[in-house]
Amino acid sequence: MSLDHASEKPHERMAAALADDLSAVGALIQQRMASEHAPRIPEVTAHLVDAGGKRLRPMLTLAAARLCGYEGENHRKLAATVEFIHTATLLHDDVVDESGQRRGRPTANLLWDNKSSVLVGDYLFARSFKLMVETGSLTVLDILSDASATIAEGEVLQLTAAQNLATTEEIYLQVVRGKTAALFAAATEVGGVVAEAPQEQIDALRTYGDALGVSFQIVDDLLDYGGSSEATGKNVGDDFRERKLTLPVIRAIAMADAEERAFWARTIEQGAQVDGDLDMALGLLAKHGTLESTRQTAIEYAEMARAALDCLPEHPLCDMMQDLATYVVARVR
What we know:
Layout: H1 10-17, H2 19-32, H3 40-49, H4 56-67, H5 74-96, E1 101-102, E2 105-106, H6 108-111, H7 114-134, H8 138-161, H9 169-194, H10 199-223, H11 229-232, H12 238-241, H13 247-254, H14 258-269, H15 277-287, H16 290-308, H17 316-330
């Protein structure tokens, strides 16, 4: 199906349904990212916040709270918290990955410097914890602080697993659950918590967020080998050039003969890449069918996400959340 039509983009329908909440969250973000003494903080933050991201994670917090019947305003503080945590991790990630492009624009570390990106990321983490505390919920604080630690843990695990051909699918999924799915899971879970939903529904929201986040990251890794720069906001093949072991490559290595394994050892472990290596890598992924098998795995996680919502109340936002899981994997064909 075409993904250009707005009616087929559930995140756009969700944004329309939550327009008032999102507007309030945007205003809160602008207010809380301000700094009286360090103007570089809002400059760096605004560069990323205003770059046109879909704000999926804070939107999921708002949607989860609303579909569980919440009528207060603390969900907006939690949505802003989630966005601050996400923005902080992006700033840090771009430094670690030495990235030059994010959402189709130069990264903050390229425009300013690594020190500014790291310190502004730290500032945003601090602001996020201030917002969490203001909700008065120790449960919320526990969930989001744990997610922040898990994200960092996932990033460190990725560093230790990077460029190691012995990295398994199990380790890859641990990394994905840490660096990506943890915040999706926390974002949806705290929406249920702030709404004081039954525990079964809170658990279901967390399961949904976890599965959606895993599917989302797997698809992102797939798009690196077949998406457009316009769609991904980065250059096709960046993961290969950065020697990242993502699921399609891990599976191709598992099926490699001696000659193919030597190719992966040279390009990934040793980093001795030459012209034509990306095409060679794409050929090996096609030979072993790992792009398609990885796509099927993403679909399985999307179906888990959809199924998790079965116990939630009937609500248009619940339907949109289910559609979102389908849309995430429809980005790759």
